[in-house]
Amino acid sequence: MSQRGILVVVSGFSGAGKGTLMKALLEQYDNYALSISATTRQPRDGEKDGREYFFVTKDQFQEMIAKKQLIEYAQYVENYYGTPRDYVQKQMDAGKDVVLEIEIQGALKVKEQFPEALLVFIMPPSAEELKRRLVGRGTETEEVIRNRLERAVKESEGIEEYDYVLINDDIGRCVGEMHQLIQVQHNKPANCLELISRIRGELKTIAK
Ligand code: 5GP
């Protein structure tokens, strides 16, 4: 309904399948743009600079913070991650719904700045399944996996702050539900300000 794109924040424990879900969402629908974050972590095998992330040094990251180029940033298991402002604004202005796949501290900062944003938390069907996926991915050491599971315990404390929870047991169903939630979010008054103001203006004219 609204002309301008909306902001969608997607979080979930490491291993919950957010990446796969986002990829499927973008393949199936063409009105979404995925924000590419900046991070100080090392690229994993197969990751490419400018595609999964902008891989930057700590100094470069500090500079981005100083120049207010990030909408939000957070530390996650010893590395920094942040959302570049420019791309998000441009895509929203062009009418695209922009998806930020970020962790919980960043998500809550986005909510403060953009109360009209949609916050969705992706859950695995069970904790056991989450561990199985993390181990099965084969890209992280045992220590990193342990850190990420500990982090998941902490993150689970903040889930009530989100607008919706989705269970990622069937990727097709989960993608469909995510799309529906985003569509409905467009109809929130806070995301229809232009329309509301236009009709209000027309009503005033007509009622004279
Ligand atoms: P990973 O190292 O597995 O790619 O990402 C680790 C965590 O950082 C994930 O929970 C991911 O959602 C989060 N993350 C990625 N980019 C950003 C960002 O720009 N800001 C914040 N706050 N978290 C991010």
Any descriptors?
208 residues, alpha/beta, 8 helices
3D structure, described in words:
By secondary structure, the chain is an alpha/beta fold. It has one domain: 3-Layer(aba) Sandwich (Rossmann fold). It is 45% helix and 21% strand. It is built from eight helices and nine strands. A five-stranded parallel β-sheet has the order 2-7-1-8-9, sandwiched between helices. It has a four-stranded mixed β-sheet with strand order 4-3-6-5. Helix 1 crosses helix 7. The longest helix is centred in the last third of the chain and has 15 residues, at 171-185. The model has no long low-confidence stretch (mean pLDDT 94).
What is shown here, in short?
The chain has helices spanning 18-28, 58-66, 85-93, 104-113, 127-137, 142-155, 171-185, 193-207; strands spanning 7-12, 32-34, 37-39, 53-55, 70-76, 79-84, 97-101, 118-123, 164-167. It is of the alpha/beta class. The strands form 2 sheets. The chain has a 5-stranded parallel sheet, with helices on both faces. A 4-stranded mixed sheet has the order 4-3-6-5.
Quick check: average pLDDT?
94
Count the beta strands.
9
Distance between the termini: 28 Å
Strand order of the largest sheet: 2-7-1-8-9
How many structurally independent domains?
A: 1
